[in-house]
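JOB MANIFEST
job_type = single_chain_structure
chain_count = 1
residues = 402
[input]
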Amino acid sequence: MTVDASSSPPVRTGPRGPLTGVRVLDLSAYIAGPYGCTLLADQGAEVIKIEPPAGDNLRKYPSTLEAESRAFLGVNRSKLGAVLDLKQPEDLAVLRGLVRSADVLVHNFRPSVPARLGIDYDSLSAINPRLIYCAVTGYGEQGPLREKAGYDQVLQAMTGMCALQAPAGAAPQIVYGSVVDYYAASMVAAGVASALYEREKSGRGQHVGVSLLRSALAMQSARLVWARGEPREVGRDMRSGGVTGIHPTREGWIYLSANTPHFWRALCEKTGLNELLATDRYDSVRKRARLQEEILPKLHAALAGRSALDWERLFGDEVPCAAARAVEDMFDFPQVQVEDMIARFEHPSLGSYRGFTRAIAFRRTPGPDPFAAPALGQHDAIVRAAARASHHDGTGARHGQD
């Protein structure tokens, strides 16, 4: 797709997506709300990112790119971009004009802020009763923490993720990669899609609530089971330990999983450790975890004979494994290429770059081609014109593919 780096809207080429024709107003910042909207854009929705004059704070995050934040580019693909100062009456009127023709609005303000700005659910649903209004919060919209700012790693620490990530007796450890934010983004996309589906039956929009607290706990559903009579300190770590994990090789590191009898046998045979199969001391995951101090020295000595990539090839499909790679290796990784997960983008100030696209594969309606995240205010004129059109005719103009 050829992308015009000017203020004119990108013309989305390619097939329809399941959400083609849906207009989304993205007022959110950072990762959870914005990436949730990007997942909707991947599916064909027209997403208009509304930023304050200072821009989304993610634009200011550390980056080795000079022209733009790497994080902002990765989180905000395939959106039009406009600047509105919602504290100014004229800009608030522009937003309200857009709401008339919008299907979805997403924000991540603290619960008390929307009413102060005049963009709470009750106010906007009075303008457009079909509006799906998604509020992304740290802790939900009720309770003692409702006004507390939510951040990925704060929620990790609060909900036990950091404690369980650490080895026994060691200091709690962060899971890097904004995992709570990205899981919340998936909840945004899923919740909005479900609300749109329900609207087709009822004709009415609704409020959708997503919080980082809900997302952090949802990720731990398998741990959040407490049977009557169990002590507080009951073991909740599901890691099998021992053989299952990352191990050193002659060159590089490899992750191995050999929990089933079939995989354990294949691992022993491939590494020449048939002696471990000759005894019932190691014939279950529990036994191997308990006796890992006997097994691991022998396994590591065997793995030292080859590189991680060599072992990966040798194990093939018989032992679940992966050599530990750098993320840069994924850009040209054969499986990623075949699945069409990386696209090339043209940005008005950065120029050409490659990035991820299409987290979901739809066979019949895969969605239009992606385009680059917008520069700050890149499509101001177009968005304001759409707001005026919505105010006059109640429908608004759709840009791109219908």
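[summary]
The chain is about 35% helix and 15% strand.
Confidence is low (pLDDT under 50) at residues 1-5, 396-402.
exit_status = 0
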